[in-house]
Design brief:
The chain is an alpha/beta fold. It is 50% helix and 14% strand. The chain has one domain. Keywords: Acyltransferase, Membrane, Transferase, Transmembrane, Transmembrane helix.
Length: 267
């Protein structure tokens, strides 16, 4: 009886934590996007885009800082800092959860994302993304053209070659978009690997499903691929690399030790 009561209390606690985290994210995105729209009206056109990207980075860094301080999430994102000064590179990441783009943007402030067109048109969330120059996934031709312009001026292009969140144990079959853009623009493809000890907010994970907190995420910089004329071969090489790197996830114990140790080192 006591064990059952403890279990129910733990579940109730985790549910409240989940609700708080999601509501906070919604508030941050709505308030941040609206504020950015108003503030950008007073800036020159050439200042708006980078200002928006800087604001997005600060906002998500603050959000994740709150979640870490409350031990809702444990994050190891420090490896991304090695990419801060890299210009005109394609960032290709696996996609295990809804938080992936937010995690990367919280450390890198010169990122342009490829997003669903309906999200960019959203009246609540889309203002900031549009001001930041994020690219709608309308057609491969439009994506390649706009991506090429952004890469020429030194932006980092973030995309998820799986096309959707990961459904399999390691990584979905990759789309050719990443290799096509690399071929057309001559930009290198820098892989990013996101690992977690939970399926939290992954494909098929309902928003109301309660995980065991804290949830651990580790983001690390992987191999860099040079562009080639053979699109199929490049996609196959990147696919094989992701599968090899993600085939043996960290155990929960070692993962927790690594993340917590890393956080202590960053304080």
């Amino acid at each position: 009886m006591i064990h059952l009561l403890k279990h129910r209390l733990q579940h109730a606690r985790n549910f409240l934590i989940l609700l708080f985290g999601l509501l906070l994210l919604g508030c941050v995105m709505v308030v941040g996007s609206t504020s950015l729209l108003l503030y950008s009206a007073f800036l020159r056109r050439d200042q708006r885009k980078q200002n928006a990207r800087n604001a997005i980075t600060r906002t998500f860094r603050m959000y994740f800082g709150v979640l870490q301080s409350l031990h809702i999430l444990h994050l190891d994102l420090s490896d991304l800092d090695s990419l801060l000064n890299d210009r005109g590179v394609i960032l290709a990441s696996n996609h295990p959860s809804l938080l992936d783009a937010l995690l990367i943007n919280s450390r890198l402030s010169n990122v342009v994302c490829i997003m669903k067109e309906q999200v960019l048109k959203n009246v609540l969330f889309g203002h900031g993304a549009r001001i930041a120059g994020y690219i709608p996934n309308k057609s491969i031709r439009d994506i390649v053209n706009v991506a090429g312009e952004e890469l020429k001026i030194g932006s980092q292009l973030l995309l998820f070659p799986e096309g959707t969140r990961t459904r399999t144990a390691t990584v979905n079959k990759l789309q050719a978009t990443v290799a096509v853009i690399a071929k057309r623009t001559g930009a290198d493809v820098q892989t990013i690997l996101i690992e977690s000890d939970s399926g939290f907010l992954g494909k098929g994970w309902p928003l109301y499903r309660v995980p065991s907190f804290p949830v651990h995420f580790r983001v690390r910089v992987g191999r860099r691929f040079s562009p080639t004329d053979n699109v199929k071969q490049m996609v196959a090489e990147i696919q094989g690399y992701f599968e090899q790197e993600l085939a043996h996830p960290h155990s929960a114990a070692s993962y927790t030790k690594h993340c917590c140790g890393s956080m202590e080192a960053q304080r």
